[in-house]
Amino acid sequence: MISPVYIIGTGLLDTSLGLKLSSLGSQVYLDDVSPSAMHLACDLGAGSLSDDSMPEPQLVVIAAPPDCAGELACAALERFPHAYVTDVSSVKKKVIKDVIRHPQAHRFVGSHPMAGKETSGAIAGDEDLFSGRPWVITPIASTDDKALEMLKQLALSVDAFPIIMPPDEHDRAVGLVSHIPQILSSLLASQLTNAPESYLSLTGQGLRDMTRIAGSDPTLWASIIAGNTRVIQEYLITLMHDINDLIDVLDNSNDDPFAPGLLRHLATYIHEGNRGVARIPGKHGGTAQHYSNIVILLPDEPGKLGQLFVDIGQAGINIEDVRIEHSSGQSLGRVNLFVQQKDEIRLSDHLKSLSYMIIGGN
Amino acid sequence: MISPVYIIGTGLLDTSLGLKLSSLGSQVYLDDVSPSAMHLACDLGAGSLSDDSMPEPQLVVIAAPPDCAGELACAALERFPHAYVTDVSSVKKKVIKDVIRHPQAHRFVGSHPMAGKETSGAIAGDEDLFSGRPWVITPIASTDDKALEMLKQLALSVDAFPIIMPPDEHDRAVGLVSHIPQILSSLLASQLTNAPESYLSLTGQGLRDMTRIAGSDPTLWASIIAGNTRVIQEYLITLMHDINDLIDVLDNSNDDPFAPGLLRHLATYIHEGNRGVARIPGKHGGTAQHYSNIVILLPDEPGKLGQLFVDIGQAGINIEDVRIEHSSGQSLGRVNLFVQQKDEIRLSDHLKSLSYMIIGGN
């Protein structure tokens, strides 16, 4: 077990980390520029107040914005001659740049626990925040192996799974799989601000899925994007070229649905999307799985969904995913059940035998 | 009841319509350029083979691509002097343009049942395809009131809900809420085709939601987009300007996260997205609802999900939405439960009393 741990910052991530490590028996010391935030985190059980009399920590965790995390890391390396130091900010390049010249830089390794919530602050802290989430660790050439080992151990101890990646690669990766999707979702949703009500009444599940993360926190995301501008800019330029090309294709058709090449071009765009989405890893980090899908029409009443799932559970079938379609107008839910292909026939037979209304699937 | 009904085309929509109307007791006659497709639909019980001896139908439903639906509609208006005629293609402008000059055009009204599946063809036909889905009806000035009434009746008889809208408005509406989301999802997913595996291993729920519809059928979508080029082009140009502006904002920052105005600009983009997504109607066509969210950590074993929902059902609480997060690496599911705000405390107390592992929410 890693102990003592000195956590600088008492926001959502750091308070959650303090709660979890304390519950595991680590001696956790908390620090924050805001005394009240620090006392709140302590009141919540995330650790004890830090002071000059505290023992030298084994590990220092800097939970500060990328712009000051580097300085704080250097200060920690000086104050504690033996401790290992990490930060948990969501973009790594700047932090590394600020620490790399420090003579003790080998005791520092950046990291990024990919966990979050809609809510924020110490009060939202929860010791299971990291469960089942990736915790990226970004060593550089000079990083001490022991520092890397300790971070792996830290990730595993909070039920996260460590992923080792160079800092630049991390920033490019999150730019693609996290920052760009957020930006596109927000831009798409912003197109709806002036749309007539009647347009929105035709909204289906596709638009709902595409705009869910558009509800994210502006302040948080502004800072994330601001910390990764070059990478995001690169992806956006590629996207803009694609959209530009598509606009040309549409323009050249002169509104003739059979203009030479039009259908080929359009089908290619959709097909490329098919190829891309097929690469997203499936559940539990396996390769992408194509689940069988069964759609059921269910009265929208308490207990109906419960009965459905208990009936499925009794057949010993594991549901891989569930989606409930909100089609406006009716008090009927369309429940999409996703199961392993091997289970499909058994499940549909089972549900039919219980006279569920199966209305589709593949 | 509308009978007899003459359905021209035996694909997914039309076969499904035939199945439903037949089950309601309507006399349905089927036709298709492909004799084998027609016979398959008949074998499936969607209706009887049409021939010259069939009685004059009350309603003719044209289920053909927009490019030929207009001609077929005109032919039907001539062949049947009293029948009302509709088409079900997903873009309306071209069809109306082809029919409007016909002397009997008042007996025609275009429509668009907004129902579909991943799978296609008569074999995928299902009589509940339209349940709880919007069925848009697009009358023009000259449209006979009786034609409009019959279409409303048709929609209601298949458990869809009719929405009346001018053709141009329909095409602009679906361009925004259906075609643009499809295009953005496909373009985003296509960015993944060349990404390193390691990037994809960091994929979270956001990217998964954003790329789900990127799995759609290229041929189908190429034809839909080709039928609505002008509208889609307009939206894409707006989007491209937004992306362009964002690229400039990022570029002007010179990679300084605190460049003057940067955070304000970025926060504004996200905030506009907040405003847009808040306008999407909630369940059952009500105004957008903000559900309370409770997150539970659940072992990924058969029956666990079932037990959870039955426990919720027993408390008489209605789950508005369910999302299961696939975080790679762990055999634990993060189950997001969405309930009416009034039910939140009761649900979390109930689940705690049953010692479920509640790990978040708001």
Word description of this protein:
The structure is a homodimer of 362-residue chains. Chain A is of the alpha/beta class and 362 residues long. The first copy, chain A, folds into 3 domains: 5-165, Rossmann fold; 172-252, 6-phosphogluconate dehydrogenase C-terminal like domain (6-phosphogluconate dehydrogenase C-terminal fold, Orthogonal Bundle), CATH 1.10.3660.10; 292-361, ACT domain (Alpha-Beta Plaits), CATH 3.30.70. In chain A, 44% of the residues lie in helices and 16% in strands. Chain A has helices spanning 12-23, 35-43, 66-79, 93-99, 145-157, 167-190, 197-200, 205-211, 218-226, 229-252, 262-277, 304-314, 344-353, and strands at residues 5-8, 28-31, 48-49, 59-62, 84-87, 110-113, 134-138, 161-164, 292-299, 319-325, 332-339, 357-361. In chain A, the strands form 3 sheets. In chain A, strands 3-2-1-4-5 form a 5-stranded parallel β-sheet, sandwiched between helices. In chain A, α3 (66-79) runs parallel beside α4 (93-99) and α6 (167-190) packs across α10 (229-252). Residues 283-288 of chain A have low confidence and may be disordered. At the A-B interface, α6, α7, α8, α9 and α10 of A face α6, α7, α8, α9 and α10 of B.
